[in-house]
Prior knowledge:
Blueprint: H1 3-14, H2 21-33, E1 36-37, H3 38-44, H4 50-62, E2 66-71, E3 74-79, E4 87-92, E5 98-102, H5 107-117, E6 128-131, H6 134-137
Parallel strand pairs: 4-6
Antiparallel strand pairs: 1-3, 2-3, 4-5
Helix pairs in contact: 2-4
Bound molecules: zinc ion (ZN) (2 copies).
Amino acid sequence: MNPINSIFDGVLKSNKYSITKQRKLIFDKISELAPVSLFDLINSLKEIDRSTIYRTIDLFIKLRLIKKIDIGFKYNIELSELFSKHHHHFYCSKCHQIIDFDEPSGLEELIYNLANKYNFKSSEHSLEINGLCSNCQQV
Ligand SMILES: [Zn+2]
Ligand SMILES: [Zn+2]
């Protein structure tokens, strides 16, 4: 079994959720398309009832299998950091492309120290930078 599948199975089992065919199907689709919008995900899973998809997404978020990338009022979904290295995103507001970037050294520490300064115990963070990708800057 590939590592992504074994992590998925492990998280569901250890939280006493069964690995249903639909859950697996939804997860595989997210894994294939991520980062993906809810709209595109629903469209690519026409065989599954919409409310089942919503419920499953909520469950996956609760179990930290996936996470939301906030983009204005909407969000995209990607696999959580159980599956990928910690990273952040650039979001192009014109072509809607999401570009991952690795954390530059020092940023993590900076965020940690900032939280500390406010006596805030940070458990996780996300960072989305909006703007224009290199293609979209050329008009
Ligand atoms: Zn762009
Ligand atoms: Zn970070």
